[in-house]
Design goal:
Layout lengths: L2 E5 L6 H9 L17 E7 L2 E7 L9 H16 L2 E7 L6 H13 L4 E7 L10 H6 L5 E3 L8 H9 L8 H5 L1 E6 L6 H9 L17 E7 L2 E7 L12 H15 L3 E7 L6 H13 L3 E6 L11 H12 L8 E3 L9 H14 L5 H14 L12 E8 L4 E6 L7 H15 L7 E6 L8
Parallel strand pairs: 1-3, 1-4, 4-5, 5-6, 7-9, 7-10, 10-11, 11-12, 14-15
Antiparallel strand pairs: 2-3, 8-9, 13-14
């Protein structure tokens, strides 16, 4: 699959163009320069052609260390790409930063296709010297408005004209999981260690990752997509509109995932905000693995330390009692393999399908062994059970009247199913339904 990178100075509309090509809002757009910090990846499609699209941070000359990191990210993207969109702004005109980028592209991307694109032509007041644009040496250029969609058809035709027809099946086959946690627990360090490269900027500043970033990779011939998300702060600390959108992005990333890695900082006491983020995982009702990061930073460990930490987690995160706990040190690349062992273990459980006859044997026997208590003037009686979904194991239990069900008895039946069929590391869902109400398809 061909790769296209969008580069340019800050605030020329790179993220707006990225979103316009994808036809949805993937990158955060804001008038504040420097909003895009890492490389953002997604698959675009045009005229039955598929391509990988990369949004990058704005390049400027600066002595700031963080800006140096952004510039380095852009160079990574240029190296990965087959085609470069060099974006400038008609509204702001050409300046020295644009000229420096053009020079850099001639040096760093001389063997790649470079397309000069002039954005923001919707502005009533703009002036561009076409002779100056041709002096860049990139030949033909395109005038567009990413915000309003003007000129996009011609640009997209140019981007895909030499591309083979390709579908999106590879993306669909990948097992997708996201990394969540409060700021500064090491989510981006963990992503980088897993990917084996500096794809996400790691910075000691809490909240340095604002976008959710999709990264495709293979691990021992298995295909995965990992989503690194913005750290979720307490509501009182979210003051920027960009930060608010990043929190929404994290929740959307959870919705797109098949599994969650909840990262905790093992080098300090767990905080209330860790529990809040854990609540998002619980509410999502999808498989979750708790990752205790920075394990090597804990001093004076002994043979009992790990078990003590597990007990503390079980106490503070009672609602995730089924979630496996894994201990790693992302910066030192230690015990990372245990994450994938846990992922595959949980994945197998989540996909497990139980025969209806076996389910009924277990549940009917459990119902007979422990008689349900009377509740709301009646006593529940289970007729039969059937599994209606895997991935998140889901069961429908037919009974005489669901209103007679006491929560303690529902928990008893859930535990019996978990124990009998080995669902000890995934969430399961039970729906209690009146036996006279038919399931869809019956």
């Amino acid at each position: 699959m061909r790769t296209i990178a969008i580069v340019g100075k800050p605030n020329v509309g790179k993220s707006s163009l990225f979103n316009r090509i994808l036809m949805r809002r993937k990158s955060i757009v804001d008038d504040q320069p420097g909003v895009t910090r890492d490389r953002i990846y997604d698959i675009g499609n045009w005229l039955t052609r598929s391509f990988m699209l990369i949004d990058t941070g704005g390049i400027i000359s600066s002595k700031d260390t963080y800006q140096d990191n952004i510039n380095e990210q852009v160079l990574f993207a240029i190296n990965e790409a087959n085609t470069i969109i060099f974006l400038v702004s008609a509204k702001d005109g050409i300046n020295n930063d644009d000229k420096k980028i053009a020079k850099m592209l001639k040096e760093k991307a001389k063997d790649k296709k470079i397309i000069l694109v002039i954005n923001k032509i919707e502005s009533e007041k703009y002036y561009l010297n076409e002779g100056e644009l041709y002096s860049f040496g990139f030949g033909k250029f395109f005038k567009i408005s990413a915000e309003h969609g003007i000129g996009m058809g011609d640009l997209l035709d140019e981007l895909v004209k030499d591309m083979p027809i390709q579908n999106n099946l590879e993306k669909q086959e990948r097992f997708k999981f996201c990394i969540i946690g409060r700021p500064n627990v090491g989510k981006s360090s963990l992503t980088n260690t897993i990917l084996g490269e500096q794809r996400v900027i790691v910075n000691a500043e809490a909240g340095s990752t604002r976008d959710s970033i999709d990264n495709d990779f293979n691990y021992y011939n298995k295909k995965y997509t990992i989503i690194d998300t913005a750290g979720i702060r307490r509501k009182g600390k979210i003051v920027e509109s960009v930060e608010k959108y990043a929190v929404l992005r994290t929740k959307k990333a959870i919705e797109r995932s098949q599994l969650i890695l909840l990262v905790l900082d093992g080098s300090e006491p767990f905080k209330e905000q860790d529990e809040v983020v854990g609540g998002l995982a619980y509410n999502a009702n999808i498989p979750t693995i708790i990752i205790v990061n920075k394990w090597d930073n804990i001093i004076n460990k002994n043979s009992h330390t790990m078990e003590m930490v597990k007990k503390q987690i079980r106490s503070q995160f009672k609602y995730l009692s089924w979630a496996p706990i894994v201990f790693v040190s992302a910066l030192d690349n230690k015990r990372i393999h245990t994450i994938f062992e846990a992922i595959e273990f949980v994945r197998e459980q989540a996909m497990r399908k139980i025969a209806t006859s076996l389910l009924n044997d277990v549940v009917i026997k459990a119902n007979a062994f422990q008689e349900p208590p009377p509740f709301k003037g009646g006593r529940i009686s289970i007729s039969y059970i059937v599994q209606v979904q895997s991935q998140i194991p889901t069961f429908v239990l037919k009974c005489n009247n669901p209103k007679f069900l006491h929560f303690s008895y529902a928990r008893y039946i859930e535990n019996e199913i978990r124990k009998a069929f080995g669902f000890d590391s995934v969430p399961i869902t039970l729906y209690w339904q009146d036996k006279n109400k038919k399931l869809r398809g019956e």
